[in-house]
Amino acid sequence: MSATNAAVEAWLEKMIGALGRTQEAPAAEDDGTAPAAAEESELAQAIREAVAAGGVNVALYMVGDPTNSPGDKEFKRQADVWAGNHGAFGLKGSALKIDCAMPLSQDPGALVTQLLARLHAELGDGTAVPLANLALFTHGGSRSMQIDSKGEGQDEGWAKAGGKVVEDLVAAVKSAVSGGTKIHLYACNTAMDKDEGKAADDATRTDSFAEDLAEMTGAEVWGHENAAHTTGNSRLVRVDDSNADGNAERGQIRDVLARKFLQRYEPPFTEAQMAWLDAEVGVASAIQKSLRLSSKVTKDVDRHQVFIEEISVMGFDALFELLIPAAAPDAAAFRKLFPQHDQIDKLVDGAAGVHARFHAALEKLAAKIHAARQQPAFPQVDGAP
After folding, report:
1. DSSP string, 198-255
2. Burial class (CB in 10 A: 0-12, 13-18, 19+), 236
3. Which residues neighbour 349 within 8 Å (Cβ) at sequence distance 6 or greater?
4. Does 140 lie in the same domain as 92?
5. pLDDT of res. 32
6. What is the pLDDT of residue 25?
7. Which of 106, 169, 218, 230 could form a disulfide with 186 if both were Cys (CB 3.0 to 4.6 A apart)?
8. What is the pLDDT of residue 13?
9. Of the candidates 247, 275, 302, which is a domain's last residue?
10. Residue 198 and residue 320 in one domain
11. Residue at 20 is within a domain
């Protein structure tokens, strides 16, 4: 063998040996001694279930001064019930809990930020955690809410939409806003119409706190137009900026349900006819009255309150579909809407009272609408009678 051939063979042997050393060693058989993957916590599983259903729910309430102001106890009571009925996640100290409402021991933006960070840490895999519902239980006004935390046992301060407290809350919420995120303001007056005579797209409109919050967060915001017990107040308003004109669009429960009722007629009414009928017959006002129950109507007002407070969670479409059938909604209908709710019996009872009054109002309205359509002033379509 020539010196050249010998050198080539030596080089080949060296390369083959090197390749052999880089090959993967055969996988060792599992003899049961390898550590098993850590099982996920029950909380992590609950978070994943919430995410799969659309997002997590959060409830915050005003601490106030329950000792010297007994009415301040109501915020915690209502928030605790809501949190339990909706599987709300919250922090109790540093511990993550479910069915837990959080007091405003800090400003709401800080609490939401801390909670979202703790939820992400519990999952530990970078899964996005959207916010489905954020409920605030506190005092409210047409342009501000009492959410500026002053610490335990002290009255929270008032915060306006343009201030740092609300801006911090908006920043925290926007990090977790999804297409279905809702903010519920269980507080007086937060959705009061400040410029009732101006159109929704009028740039000179003065917006309510709820409208400002909707524009700032991109979420759907629900509030109340007046000062009343906000878990039993049917003067609900839904606001969102659905047409990107810079102004929030307002939807009053009375107007939305009136429109849905009139749209069921055959042949369908035109926009002009619906407006005329509402002005002539009072469709919206009659429907609003039917949603009000007093202690004279029901012995357990709280059962009615439980139903009314869920309207913002279910939305106007679901509400109408529950009320329009001849039979009142049963437990199965509510379990489908609220699988975690533990007061289904109260929802059924409250809805039954509202359903009866709603249909009594519709029966009277139908007769009035029939008579009104015969009037010469009833708007015609293309000159047809």
Report:
1. S-TT-TT----HHHHHHHHH-SEEEEESSSS-TTS---EEEEE--S-SSSPEEEEHHH
2. buried
3. 298, 300, 303, 307
4. yes
5. 53
6. 42
7. 230
8. 55
9. 247
10. no
11. no
**For 201-247, what is each residue's pLDDT tens digit?**
677 777 899 999 998 999 999 999 998 888 888 889 999 876 666 67
Whose tokens are 């926007």? That residue is 174
> 74 is in which domain, residue-wise?
42-247
Q: Is residue 11 part of a domain?
A: no
Q: Which residue has the higher pLDDT, 361 or 301?
A: 361
Cα angle 159, 311, 317; round to 5: 120
3-state secondary structure of 377: coil
Q: What is the rounded average pLDDT of the residues 128-145? A: 96
Amino acid at 66: P
Whether 171 and 97 share a structural domain: yes
With beta carbons less than 8 A apart as the criterion, state whether 304 and 232 touch.
yes
β pairing state of 177-186 and 131-137: parallel
Q: State the total domains in the chain.
A: 2
Q: Which of 40, 37, 77, 50 is nearest to 61 (CA)?
A: 77
